[in-house]
Write a structure and sequence with these properties.
Elements (H helix, E strand, L loop, with lengths): L2 H18 L8 H14 L3 H19 L26 H17 L7 E2 L2 H6 L16 E3 L4 H13 L4 E4 L16 E4 L6 E5 L4 E4 L5 H10 L4 E2 L10 H7 L6 H4 L8 E5 L5 E3 L13 H5 L8 E8 L1 E2 L1
Parallel strand pairs: 2-4, 3-4
Antiparallel strand pairs: 1-2, 5-6, 6-10, 7-11, 8-9, 8-10
Helix pairs in contact: 4-6
The chain binds flavin-adenine dinucleotide.
The site of flavin-adenine dinucleotide (FAD) has 30 residues, from strand 3, helix 8 and strand 10.
Length: about 325
């Protein structure tokens, strides 16, 4: 069949279909009047149509409120042990966890009280004026660990009592990142703020999570290293939180974001297990990209207690 012939047959077919299809023709005024008459014959008025719509809404809402197994859907509430989804420890369990952490750290030789339940402290760790959102709820305690091992003890005991753990570094995040809607323990790394090792020749540095990016640059300067760390979010931001948010900054276009400035992380998982995501030499590139999982996870997958950062020549 030639192309022209095929086109003619197609157009002919369309014509026949349209002329035979009565529904495509405009209804006559007479038919429209008949339709109005038949609606009136059924007794439909504006009020009855409104009543029907309202009852359909109520029935629809009823169905929506049922779960698939037919039981009414429940709104998860704080400490509700029967609510669907994760179950968090009760206030009592959280208090028990706090006491157990205190005892365990004391037994391991810690002289200082690592846990605070001071009301101002709780507010400062669950509320932020900078934040665009502040969910209800505050942590029941704030822990100030001094080492990875102490963070591991805190996580292990929290895991045992289903207590949420919330990481806290500089507190400069802006979207309720460190809020505590289910209570739990805020882990503030304030005492873990040191440079552990500066490797000038390898152009990297091993740091604890609570060193601020500005302090890091000051110390690199004081050490005459000729190196600097280019990621610059809020002035009070610290490395742990910067990893948590995968922050950017004014230098991001030139130097990338935090994900590009992590070589190796030491992470305490929710049950207290301590892992390292990689090794320090950059030449070693084998294995899963675990850094990619933890950077930007907002502390939900584990708490970063140490990290190796590459540095740049000034
Ligand atoms: C003036 C101003 C300018 C800003 N500019 C920028 C910008 O340009 N780009 C940008 O990205 N952000 C910007 N921010 C937001 C903020 O500075 C960043 O999100 C920063 O990365 C937060 O770091 P932080 O130490 O304050 O973290 P925090 O607020 O303490 O915590 C942030 C998140 O990380 C988690 N976390 C904290 N510590 C750890 C840890 N050790 N291990 C695992 N998780 C942890 C917390 O639970 C939380 O989810 C700005 C903020 C301000 C106030």
């Amino acid at each position: 069949m030639s192309a022209n012939h095929a086109t003619r047959r197609l157009i002919g077919g369309w014509r026949r279909t349209f002329s035979a299809n009565a529904t495509l023709k405009r209804p006559s005024t007479g038919r429209a009047t008949n339709a109005v008459n038949s609606v009136q014959a059924l007794g439909w008025t504006g009020r009855s149509v409104f009543a029907l719509a309202a009852s359909a809404g109520v029935v629809g809402f009823g169905f929506a409120a049922l779960t698939l197994d037919g039981s009414p859907k429940r709104t998860a509430s704080l400490f509700d042990s029967e609510a669907p989804g994760p179950r968090y420890g009760s206030v009592k369990e959280m208090e028990t966890a706090v006491e157990e952490i205190r005892r365990e750290l004391e037994r391991l030789g810690e002289d200082e009280d690592v846990i605070s339940t001071n009301a101002d402290d709780l507010l400062a760790h669950g509320y932020s004026e900078w934040s665009t959102v502040n969910p209800d709820g505050l942590p029941v305690a704030v822990a100030y660990p001094r080492s990875t091992e102490q963070v591991s003890v805190i996580a292990r005991i929290c895991h045992k009592y289903h207590v949420p753990i919330i990481g806290y570094s500089g507190g400069s995040s802006l979207e309720g990142h460190f809020s505590a809607p289910y209570g739990g323990i805020s882990v503030d790394f304030a005492y873990m703020d040191k440079i552990i090792q500066l490797n000038k020749d390898d152009m990297d540095v091993v740091v604890q999570p609570s060193i601020g990016w500005q302090d890091l640059n000051t110390q690199l300067n004081q050490a005459n290293s000729g190196l600097f760390f280019p990621i610059d979010p809020g002035p009070s931001a610290k490395i742990g939180g910067m990893i948590g948010t995968n922050c950017s900054g004014t230098n991001a276009v030139r130097y990338g974001t935090m994900k590009d400035w992590v070589i190796n992380l030491t992470v305490v998982l929710a049950d207290g297990t301590i892992i390292k995501t990689r090794r320090r030499p950059r030449k070693s590139s084998a294995g899963y990209n675990l850094n990619g999982i933890f950077v930007g996870s907002e502390g939900t997958l584990g708490l970063v207690t140490e990290g190796v950062r590459p540095l740049f020549h000034r």
